[in-house]
Design goal:
Distance between the termini: 83 Å
Order of helices and strands: EHEHEHEHEHEHEHEEHHHHHHHHHHHH
Shape: globular
Strand order of the largest sheet: 3-2-1-4-5-6-7
Largest sheet: 7 strands, mixed
Number of helices: 19
CATH topology of the largest domain: N-(1-d-carboxylethyl)-l-norvaline Dehydrogenase, domain 2
Strand content: 5-15%
Number of domains: 2
Bound molecules: NADPH dihydro-nicotinamide-adenine-dinucleotide phosphate
Radius of gyration: 25 Å
């Protein structure tokens, strides 16, 4: 710690906070810490800190007194009301020029509101998306900062040191004003939902369709992870299939209840995509499937009365495995395409000025959606900064096209076996819709005009037209 006080303060010693503090301290920065429940601070200081330059504050005034001025304080508390509660308590203790950084998964509209409020009190505010979970926070997350540019410049050395590094580049960059950082983090999580759903659909096809066991699945996903599907989520999927339950000796995956939980960030992505009128159907399907997984008891009853085809696959198994790999890779490309198209629209609508090449660059390491594919995505935006959709990048478009037939086959296989694969199916329809110069929306316009006199445009003349449909 310098004579003037700690370099930075952190409030919230939960999973993320504890680990991020240790990460900062390991890079030589002095950190003051505070947690609402003082026993947690005590436990952290006694059992985890060791000789690192970390100072505890057992109440907020003590914590504030430990900080160098102008102060920089990271909040890593539960998202929502707790952030406002902490800000209310902090406010009387702060002085103009201090910087607050909200590192949680706050909704971007809350970040805008808080930024405006704090600016009115001459306080700097940043919304900082942090991805990578516990291990990322500890050893190098992907950091998605937005908000005060001056604030960012002040903490830049700390963020760059703490972030994951890929090929000598830190996975952090200033993304834009106001809630740009939290918005990018939200879409990151939306893409994460989509990718997870696609992977679990291949698992279901393998398990219920091909009858493969976890021991047979592990080497498949492990091989995929060493090929073009190389990614954190495929890597951990392979590892999950190898884990045996300590209590029963059975594969642990077979003992886990099939009800998925969510904290809401995927749903927020879908909501805002609908608000901005950008289609993100793979992400939407992922959110819907988490919800449907929650109806376990209802599904059990329905399974007894609603019959479907036999899920057992009887065709060429090796061929099916290869097709599944290609279908998954193509769908992953399309999921990133949807998320990045949303970011493009959000940037224009909310004035973030996002550099999508930089977004792809900082997602290459530390975060949950890191994948070899992000190098190609980065190159795509490097070649054309205003690329409207990744599918229009010559290289990625070709990667998708060369696998489209396999995606189609896998979707047909799922439908024939009666196995739900809405992520893969929605992805295929997204692709087919995107490449259709003509869609049947002319009939929707006719229907709208029929029942609501909403008018329609014509192909052969400009202007708005209305028809009295019943009289024709
Ligand atoms: P934890 O549940 O582990 O910890 C929550 C922290 O918030 C605790 O320090 C808790 O204090 C504090 N807190 C809760 N309510 C209040 C309140 N009203 N006033 C003051 N402090 C409060 O959360 P995480 O560390 O997992 O998450 C922190 C943030 O980071 C969240 O926004 C989360 O969404 C986000 N995040 C989490 C990731 C993860 O993998 N866990 C990944 C990326 C982002 P106390 O000990 O007193 O209860």
């Amino acid at each position: 710690m310098s004579q003037q006080g700690c370099d930075i303060g952190l409030i919230g010693l939960g999973t993320m906070g504890r680990n991020f503090v240790l990460n900062l301290a390991d890079h030589g920065f002095s950190v003051a810490v505070y947690n609402r429940t003082a026993e947690k601070t005590k436990d952290f200081m006694e059992n985890e800190v060791g000789p690192r330059p970390i100072q505890p504050g057992y109440d907020l005034p003590e914590f504030i007194g430990l900080l160098r001025r102008p102060r920089a304080i990271i909040l890593l508390v539960a998202a929502g009301e707790p952030v406002d509660a902490v800000l209310r308590e902090l406010l009387p203790l702060l002085t103009p020029g201090d910087l607050i950084i909200d590192g949680g998964n706050s909704h971007f509209t809350d970040t805008n509101r808080r930024g405006r409020f704090l600016a009115g009190r001459q306080l700097d505010f940043m919304g900082l998306g942090i991805s990578g979970g516990e291990a990322g926070a500890r050893h190098g997350p992907s950091l998605m900062p937005g908000g005060s540019r001056e604030g960012y410049d002040r903490v830049l050395p700390m963020l760059e040191a703490a972030a994951a590094q890929v090929k000598g580049e830190p996975c952090v960059t200033y993304l834009g004003p106001r809630s740009a950082g939290h918005y990018v983090k939200m879409v990151h999580n939306g893409i994460e939902y989509g990718l997870m759903e696609l992977i679990v659909e291949t698992y279901d096809l393998f398990k219920r369709g091909l009858g493969l066991t976890p021991a047979e699945l592990a080497p498949i996903y492990d091989r995929w992870n060493r090929e073009e599907l190389n990614s954190f989520l495929v890597e951990i999927t392979a590892k999950i299939f190898t884990r045996q339950d300590d209590r029963t000796g059975r594969p642990l995956i077979d003992l886990i209840l099939d009800k998925a939980k969510q904290k809401g960030t995927g749903m927020w992505t879908s909501w805002d995509a609908m608000d901005l009128q950008v289609g993100t159907p793979t992400i939407d399907a992922a959110v819907v499937m988490r919800e449907m997984s929650g109806f376990k008891e209802e599904r059990q009853i329905a399974s007894l009365v609603l019959a479907g085809p036999s899920p057992a696959f009887t065709g060429d198994r090796e061929g099916a495995i290869d097709r599944m790999k290609n279908a998954l890779y193509a769908s992953m490309i399309a999921t990133y395409a949807q998320g990045l198209a949303l970011l493009r629209k959000a940037s224009a609508t909310y004035g973030y000025g996002l550099d999508l090449e930089a977004v792809a660059r900082i997602w290459r390491g530390g975060c949950i959606i890191r994948a070899a594919l992000l190098e190609d995505i980065r190159t795509a935006f490097k070649n054309k900064a205003d690329l409207p959709n990744l599918l229009l990048d010559p290289r990625l478009g070709q990667e998708f096209l060369s696998r489209a037939a396999d995606l189609r086959e896998v979707v047909q296989m799922a439908a024939a076996l009666g196995l739900p694969a809405p992520g893969l199916m929605a992805t295929l329809s997204y692709f087919d819709a995107y490449r259709s110069a003509e869609l049947p929306a002319n009939l929707i316009q006719a229907q709208r005009d029929f029942f609501g006199a909403h008018t329609y445009e014509r192909l052969d003349a400009p202007g708005a037209f209305h028809t009295e449909w019943e009289e024709e």
